Every structure is written in structure tokens, then in C-alpha cells.
Amino acid sequence: MFIPNLPLDFSLLPLPSIHFGVGRFSRLAxxxxxxxxxILVVTGAHALQRSGRLSNLMESLQSAGMCTYHxxxxxxxxxxxxxxxxSYYQELAIEVVLAVGGxxxxxxxxxxxxxxxxxxxxxxxxxxQEGFMQHDGRKVPFIAVPTTSGTGSEVTNNAVISxxxxxxxxxxxxxxxxxxxxxxxxxxxxxxxxxxxxAASGMDACTQLLEAxxxxxxxxxxxxxxxxxxxxxxxxxxxxxxxxxxxxxxRGDIAYAALMSGIALANAGLGIVHGFASSVGGLIDIPHxxxxxTLLAEATRENIFQLxxxxxxxxxxxxxxxxxxxxxxxxxxxxxxxxxxxVETIEEWQELLSFPRLRSFGLALxxxxxxxxxTRSKSNAVQLDDAAMKRIxxxxx
Length: 397
Description:
8 strands; single chain; about 50% helix; Rossmann fold; 2 domains
């Protein structure tokens, strides 16, 4: 007898105009010029300049008749950085913001574009902050060009803003309108990224794919995207971190995985590792990708343990098993074995690529209870109590 499934019911965020492929970077002046003549270019502090690409970009923009301004960002954006930039550039009638860099650079550019038309300080609009106000969504057009493969910020609707230290935070400025107008992904921009940064940013993308796949808010749409991303990631991750790092096709696979992870997380949410990214990341100065890399195996193990205790046939276990088959390259009909393969594969990467422990960034055992109390993750595959969350942290301390 046919038993119908529950009816589908979901909403999707808009996507940017996406331009993906080797050599697409050369089209930036043409794409940016469609928004106006005054352009603010936001980059990192060193890599783009050393490669010569920044000077080439600025020359191409100026040759296209654009008036260019440049802001270099050397760390994750703070409220103070965003406010200073907005105060300086607000009087210059900026018509388009172009961010070229890693996740922090894209978040900085996204936040600046969101605040240039606003008179209030950015902290008023950061989720979870005292006196939070909903942003009205007005922004200067924004173009995102990632140079690392990790955050997927080129297709998301939020910018992560941080203040590190006691009473620090790492939270989002968010609105559906903050999705970039254009996302341009050129794998050639990633071929010179160091093995360490490639591994850390790649594990961020992998974490986002796994957490979105197993989220209670996942849909057939996000499932398809995450599995597609995991397949490309599995094919090329270790190669990108080692002997084939200079191959644009290999880099393209990881860039594609990051792109898919951004689309998926924006529509399905993220799990406990990204919950810790907010609480741990607000306390100690640890790169976001490194935090994901060091916590993913233990967090996945704990989630699987808790799910098995609830229901050995839980749909999330089936998804973990599918991810295990994709990432390990070993298909197995047993859900139990597939889940174990997933954890073993991530642990193998952890050992091979020497992901650092949390204590190497100054985290102390006595700080864990406060971190756990501050950690939230409504989109995790299973509800974790304080003891479970603390176990994850202790095992990677």
C-alpha cells in the first residue's frame, strides 16, 4: 500500500549572480561597472598585493573609468573596524563595494556595504547584542570574490562580526538583502594558498556541508547541494593540501564545495561546531577554519552517539552514513558502519594534517563550563546537553 510522505514545505534565500570558473577574475571591471563609478575595494593586507593581482585589478577598474578606493583588512572584522570604515567612506558616495579575499575580508565588505546607508553603529544590528535592532536591508551593491575555499560567505546573507576577549562575541549581522549581488569564484586565485590555510578553510566548508546535511531544517534542495559539495570535496581535499595544490581543477573542486556549503547553510542552518565558533571564537583568538578542523571529528562522534541513543533508525544517522561513504570512498549498506567510517575519515585527516588543539590558542579547562553555558545550536542534528558539549571540548583541549 502506498503511504505518502509528508508534504514539502520550505523557503529559499535568493542567490547572487554567480560566475564560476578559471579566468573569471579578469571580468571584474566589467561586472562592477554596471553599478556605478565609485568603488570601494576591500582586500586582505598582504596576499593579493604580493601576487600583483591587486595592482592589476585597480588598473583595470581605473581603465574602465571607475574612481577607486582601497581598504585593507588584516583580521576578522570588529564593530570598530566596520564603523571606522563607514565613517570614512560614507561621504564619498560609494556606489559598489567589491571584496576580494578570505572569509573575513568578505564579511568586512558585506558589513560595510550594509552600513554605508545607515547612520547607526553596526553593533546595534548584530544578533544577540544588547539593544538589538533589525536592519532594514538597505545596502550599497556588493560583489564578493573569495580567495580561499571555506566560509561560503560569497552566497550567504550574514557577515560575522567579532570582538575577542572577556565578554567578547562572534555573531552575525544578517538580512536576506545582504546576499551579495554578484559572487565571482575563480580557482586560480586559490592556487598559492598555503597548505595550512587550505586545510583549515577546507575543513570549514566540510563542516558546513555536514552540519547543513544533518540539520533538522534540511530539505531535499539542501541535501542535493550538500552531497554534491561533499563529492567534490572528497575527490580533491587532500590533493589541494599536498602535491596538487597548484592545480586549478583541484582548487576548483574545493571552491565548488565551499560555494555549495554557503548555499546550504544559508537555507538549512549549522550545528554544534559553529555554535562553538561563536562562544569559543569570542573568547580566544583562533582562526574560524582551525576551530572547525579541530572540533569536527569529536562533534560528529558525539552527535552520532546521541542519535543512536535516541533512535538507531534516525534519518540523521542515515545522512551521516551517506557522508561517510562519500568521504571515505567506501560504500557500505550498513548505516552503523557508514557513520563509523565518517568519524574515522575525519580523524585520519586530523592526524595527517596536524590540526592543532584548543589549548595551543590559550583555552583553559576552567573556561569550558562558561563556554558551554554560552553555546547555542538550534540546527544541530540532535539536542546536546551541557555534559555532551563539554566532552567535545575536553577531547580537543
